[in-house]
């Protein structure tokens, strides 16, 4: 469990710098350049992610069960996961979805975490999915309080919304029907 917790602290800590030190990035970029920021940030993120994957795998070998999830919650989990992939794509394909929601990736991350907590009841699940969902909520709260940059002069693209929804639903079907089992050894169905 320690490896998982260290990975979460490193990964989420790196991604929390804008929450706890909003001007740190700009200061480092201004004084030492892009490489001085990107190299340690990237290395810490990759190392944190690797520790999360390794630590979660270790924790699954000897799980501490906190609660048993009723089989009916699988349907709720699948329903909560439905908007996750469209929201993730909408974060990178700016349209009305992104304009309306503001930060679709953080909303997707909170939904992902909540959905997985409904389906999984071990201590490792609580740390992984609960920790990431809580972090996304804290980041969302922080981001909504920060001043926004200049608004884009381009009108939101309906085409990008269609790409986000259709593409996201296709990814959802592939992930739920096949890829989740291949990557994680568990079928959500």
TrEMBL record:
Residues 3-188 form the NnrU domain. The chain crosses the membrane at residues 40-59, 71-95, 163-184. It is found in: Membrane. It comes from the Bacteria. It is a multi-pass membrane protein. Keywords: Membrane, Transmembrane, Transmembrane helix. Pfam families: NnrU. Coiled coil: none annotated. This is NnrU family protein. It comes from Chelativorans salis.
């Amino acid at each position: 469990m320690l490896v998982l917790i260290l990975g979460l602290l490193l990964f989420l800590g790196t991604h929390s710098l804008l929450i706890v030190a909003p001007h740190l990035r700009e200061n480092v970029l201004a004084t030492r350049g892009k490489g001085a920021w990107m190299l340690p940030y990237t290395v810490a993120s990759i190392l944190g992610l690797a520790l999360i994957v390794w630590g979660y795998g270790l924790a699954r070998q000897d799980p501490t069960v906190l609660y048993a999830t009723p089989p009916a919650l699988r349907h709720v989990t699948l329903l909560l996961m439905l908007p996750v992939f469209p929201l993730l794509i909408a974060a990178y394909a700016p349209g009305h979805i992104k304009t309306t929601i503001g930060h679709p990736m953080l909303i997707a991350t909170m939904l992902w975490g909540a959905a997985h907590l409904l389906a999984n009841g071990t201590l490792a699940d609580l740390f992984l999915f609960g920790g990431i969902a809580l972090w996304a909520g804290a980041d969302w709260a922080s981001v909504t309080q920060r001043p926004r940059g200049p608004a884009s002069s381009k009108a939101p693209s309906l085409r990008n919304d269609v790409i986000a929804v259709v593409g996201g639903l296709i990814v959802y079907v592939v992930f739920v029907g096949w890829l989740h089992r291949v990557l994680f050894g568990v079928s959500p169905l």
